[in-house]
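To assess whether the prediction recovers the assembly geometry, we first specified each molecular entity separately, as shown.
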Amino acid sequence: MAENYLDTKGRIFDIQRFSIHDGKGIRTIVFLKGCVLRCKWCCNPESQEYKIQTMMVQGKPKTIGRDVTVREVLETVVKDRPYYRRSSGGMTLSGGESLCQPEFCTALLRGAKELGITTALESMACADYSVIEKILPYLDQYLMDIKHTDPQKHKEFTGKSNELMMENARKVAASGATELIIRVPVIPTFNATESEIEGIAKFAASLPGVKKLHLLPYHRLGQDKYDGLGRTYEMKHIVPPTTEEMNKLLRAAQRVSGLDCQIGG
Amino acid sequence: MIINYFVEKYNTFDGFFGNYFFENHINQQKIFKKPQFFFDKGLTSNKMKGIIIMIEFIKAGKLMAKFYSEKIAMRERIGRLKDNLFKKMPEIESARAKLITESYKTTEGEPMITRRAKAFLHIMQYLPITIRDEELIVGSTTLAPRGCQTYPEFSYEWLESEFDTVATRTADPFYISEQAKKEIAEADKYWKGKTTSELATAYMAPETIRAINHNMFTPGNYFYNGVGHVTVHYDWVLAVGFKGIAEKAKKALSEVNFGDADCAKRTHFLNAVIMSCEAAVIYAKRYAALAREMAFKETNAARKAELETIAQNCENVPENGARTFWEACQAFWFVQQLLQIESSGHSISPGRFDQYMYPYYKKDLDAGKITRDDAQELIDCIWVKLNDLNKCRDAASAEGFAGYSLFQNLIVGGQNADGLDVTNDLSFMCINASMHVLMPQPSLSIRVWNNSPHELLMHAAELTRTGVGLPAYYNDEVIIPSLMSRGLTLQDAREYNIIGCVEPQKSGKTEGWHDAAFFNMCRPLELVFSDGMDKGELVGIHTGDVAQMQTFEEFYDAYKKQMNYAISLLVNADNAIDVAHAERCPLPFLSGMIEDCIGRGKPVQEGGAIYNFTGPQGFGIANMADSLYAIKTLVFDEKKVTLAQFRDALKENYGKGVDAQKAEKVVAEVVKELTAAGKKISAAEITAAVTELVGSSSKYDALLEMIEAVPKFGNDNEEVDAFARDVAYTYTRPLEKYKNPRGGQFQAGLYPVSANVPLGAQTGATPDGRLAGKPVADGVSPSAGKDVNGPTAAANSVARLDHYIASNGTLFNQKFHPSALSGRQGLENFVALIRSYFDQKGSHMQFNVVSRETLLDAQKYPEKYKHLVVRVAGYSAFFTTLSRSLQDDIINRTEQGL
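The predicted structure of the complete assembly is given in tokenized form:
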């Protein structure tokens, strides 16, 4: 019975091996399908709906999303064990919001840990804390998005207010159960000002145990996917921040937080 | 010691702080716990900077290092030396052809070894010499930079027939003056019927010649040229000079008894060695005289002093042992250069330069005679000189070895005979040198094993990141046992170096014939479908009507039979050429520096070396694995297609025209003609017309789609990969049973240099869906674009091949976008990737780090990218000198990362 959790089913839309910009070392990222937010800048719009979709990719229809068991996912994840060992890498869950599939997410993390593979999770923490609490024993690193400190603006751009997520951030930090890293997507017109970034940085610094803050500059690489899904990309007019602007924000974040801040993951 | 660095740079460790540091530097923790200690002492900012850097060093583990691993700046001289090399296009000179012919005419009827020594002496006495501007290391084979001499004793007819096209051909063009053409043609008259290539042809079985004509394999390299592919005892020349080697030969001579059975040959051989040693000394003394003369005339005091030292150096070495590092560099260079005057063989590989040069560097450094910057400059000068040597090959070979490459492989790091890591300062400085000159030579290699220092790999990774295609990484953990399985002692195997592209051997003891032929593994499969026939002739053996084969085993067995037969012909070809070299071109100068030629009294060509091999390389593993797997799956497992249908599809090139490449050529020509005639027409219109003409149809598109859906090698699919491992055995296992005339055995390599493109052009459609004429997969890498799961999956697949049995080397290319190696973390991950592939017992790995956009732009504006170096196969080359099809092949290799 003990191994039953390996049969837990979930829905993913991609597994990306040799990922080197999301967490430590060489990693395999499992992208879970479904999200609670609808961020206007989202570079993985195909991740948002839980339902299986068809997206046009280079003129050809592609099915996005498939149902798999934890065992099947881990069979792929374990293939790169030699690389994890040499680079201190491991498995990262991303999405979507992985917490939308709590059982699957927990079982994946647990399975990886059982195999001796380190784990990370990219998530907004937009779920009931009881869900998060269950995954913490199996999670080495929590890469948590904090997008804005202002509930109104958060709601306007992502579809949801931020109280729950900030509360969860405090709780995860207080638990001391995992290494918490705060990540901020830097989106012009949304949060790319010094005062807004400072606000987030201050909040991050107030979380016990948090040492690192990543500023992730907005990019447009997901734009074609909106067309492929027959959706309109609302951020078309937004220009990615320049290196100088990013450096300015980086300095601002460092100044107010004293955290180890960096641009990129 | 690294501490000197801080003393020099920051004056940090004076007085109390210095003492504190010296007492506590071993205890890293203590320093980290007490940063306040430093602040309290009111340090100046400069000292503080020193301490911060020191802490960084401790973190990086560098402070404990036994060697100096910092970058050293390039001196301006090197940039100018480099620019001078590229002032004009490479040129063919006639001096050697004239001199060797003169000598041969006077020695008719004498023993061949004596004639060779006399010819070498004659060349050394009269070959024009020059010292280029600002050189510190002298010795040039041609007056023009990057020029080449010709070697009519091996073959000459191809050059005469290409006189008028050699300057304009796409791959490796050479300028040749009318005067030189006349002189070479005049000399060539003598050589009819006297070359190694003619004798080799005479020795080959008619079946072998037919197989070569039908492109089953090509032994063209040693057929047309000298063998090369060797690393000599540089250390002997550095220690005792050619005088010492000649003395050894003289001593052996004194021990020959008149009554010995081999007295005649032994005596002549030893005398030839002595004469060759003396010839090299004469050549060096001519340079000494030239340098003195130039020094006398020189008005710039600094240059005058340099020329005077050059004169002294050439007066002392290589006649005697080297007294200084500069002399050691000069002596090394003469050996490297002169080996390539004696014979046209390429891949004369310096080998473990960081090891045999180290004592001379250390001695001068400790005595304060030289700074690290001085030593770096001398090494940089050698690197430039290695690019000054050149070789003109026939047009077809030039495509196979594209990029003016001489494959002078130089390797650093690794273990000594006792199994200890011997990375040293020079290991790092060699990497610096490649970073300074950013040119294809030498083919820099790094030995990697479990105890390789991390900083060595990080330093090497930084070089990889420049995109120059260097270094290549080799795995001691595979290569050492692999060589032992071929009879090397443990001590010798631990001291291996790499020859040419990827071929391991023990320096100074081996005649490895490492690049003995390209064997196309796809061709025997074509013969299975045609019952051994090719273009109306029986080229293979009869294996029966393919349509009647009932099981996959029966089909696979037919493939193995065709393979075995073709391999036996390959051996026949190589051994014929081997004998021809022994009879017509024994090499006394080279043999004096290989154990145990003097002891055995015979040249390497007759088995004088301790280890003897012949290493022809197979290629097309990925295509054959994918092809056979597709047939197994579609014909026998799923029964969706019959072998007869496959046969027809292949014959008709899947309905995609007779030959896609030919069609392209025709289109290009038609467009050119019509444009010239003033008519406007687009390539697309013509293509449409031609495509109709050659009959492209969608008849087999369903089959192509089915093939596409079958899993392919390179995607970390254990079943397919295990299959590929077995397919590789169809080449590696039969081959190792054969012997060569020097008393050694055959051993397989799995790599194609760049021949996968030209030889792919001669290969029909294959059952993996590859169309006729398209390149076959390179090395042991997956077919271009078929690996879709990223670099780790591809590496896992390739590691599943048996790299131990391919003891003549395997070659695995990966291409990365620069972003994959950005920052310190990028380098760390890159090093981890190499280590992980090697953990899984891969043997070799090399990388192109350049963006697709850059390469496309370079195709468009070659003039902007004259210096763009890419990794082609076992070596790097200038991208713009490669043929268009090879450029396309490189661009199409899957770009990993992002």
